[in-house]
Amino acid sequence: MTTADFYGYEDLLPEEERKILCKARDFMTTEVKPLVNEYWAKGEFPRELIGKFRELGLAGVAYEGYGDPLQRGSHLLTGMLAMEYSRIDPSVATFFGVHNGLAMYSVYAGGDQEQRDRWLPAMAAMDKIGAFAMTEPLGGSDVAGGMRTTAKREGDTWVLNGAKRWIGNATFADLIVVWARDVDDNKVKGFVVEKGTPGFSPVKIEHKIAFRIVENAEITLTDVRVPEANRLRNINGFRDVAEILRATRGGVAWQALGVMIGAYELALAYAKERKQFGRPIAGFQLVQDLLVKSLGNITASWGMLVQLARLQDSGVFRDEQSSLAKAFVTSRMREVVAWCREIFGGNGIVLDYDIARFFADAEAIYSFEGTREMNTLIVGKSITGESAFV
């Protein structure tokens, strides 16, 4: 149990799921933590860890019939796993979130049985790494109605043209789920593009100040030919895509919780060790105020996400519920990383102390999977019955 689990939320997991969570915690602490600052500074993903991720065996934990059946888990477990990955490094958590969440769930929910059987076993084993290509250079929040990437059917082949931006894992992924608008019926469709397909060109985005370990790419699609067999057959418009995003948006809120916990634990340990005026700064009232406010945000956010997971497990989960969680928890995360960085004083801007990485990476989590403003409007429409979208 982490020092941030003030109300004992982890105890809600059954024993077998707690073992899986502890397995992930040990892996992140021993295998990932020693490397993250080096790779964050270089702006590269530690690809040599993919083999160890494969041995960890947690990629298929959310999917019935795929992955290790001994490591099947509830939505509460999968949420806490996202939290646990982010507690050490949110970039690595995003690697898992893109592969295990967005890409695999697109195939699981959007593909038919033949497609699921074709791709998911290799993805669950992490023999094939996935990516999810929706956001475009000129389209983010308005991508539902403004998607510019096109798909044109020619016999048993689809021809894709356009561009995507901010696509995590795309520089090395084996299977990229690309979303495009059918020029004939104007509906959004999903396609699995395999690595090395002619006309598919991913270029890594450089000079980021956040999520530097995530290899985001700008993708150019020039007459990319994809067989009809690679079109996700259960996707018949953006409404189906929205179902996928609804399911994964809650995972981003769990990531934000993990960032809060990671920052809080660093600040608490530092406050106990750092001495000023002859005593640990943990004994100063203003430092305790920052720590307690941080713990309050963590505890409140955790409680919201536990109930969100229960709603998912019960099958009565709604889009606006994940939107409220994403908007609320990421806003609280922003407060916590600022308060915790403040406890470090000048040392808080030095990468060696870890907290600067959390402070910077929080900005990416705050923005993706729907901005606070967009998620606010989704909830606002739900509670008022009035749409405030442009």
Attribute tags:
flavoprotein; Butyryl-CoA Dehydrogenase, subunit A, domain 2; oxidoreductase; 11 helices; alpha+beta; 390 residues; Butyryl-CoA Dehydrogenase, subunit A, domain 3; 3 domains; Butyryl-Coa Dehydrogenase, subunit A, domain 1; two-stranded antiparallel ribbon; AcylCoA_DH/ox_N
Could you characterize the architecture of this molecule?
By secondary structure, the chain is of the alpha+beta class. It has 3 domains: 116 residues, Acyl-CoA dehydrogenase/oxidase, N-terminal domain (Butyryl-Coa Dehydrogenase, subunit A, domain 1, Orthogonal Bundle); 101 residues, Butyryl-CoA Dehydrogenase, subunit A, domain 2; 147 residues, Butyryl-CoA Dehydrogenase, subunit A, domain 3 (Up-down Bundle). Helices cover 52% and strands 14% of the residues. It is built from 11 helices and 9 strands. Helix 4 packs antiparallel against helix 5, helix 4 packs antiparallel against helix 7 and helix 9 runs antiparallel to helix 10. The radius of gyration is 21 Å and the shape is globular. The model has no long low-confidence stretch (mean pLDDT 90).
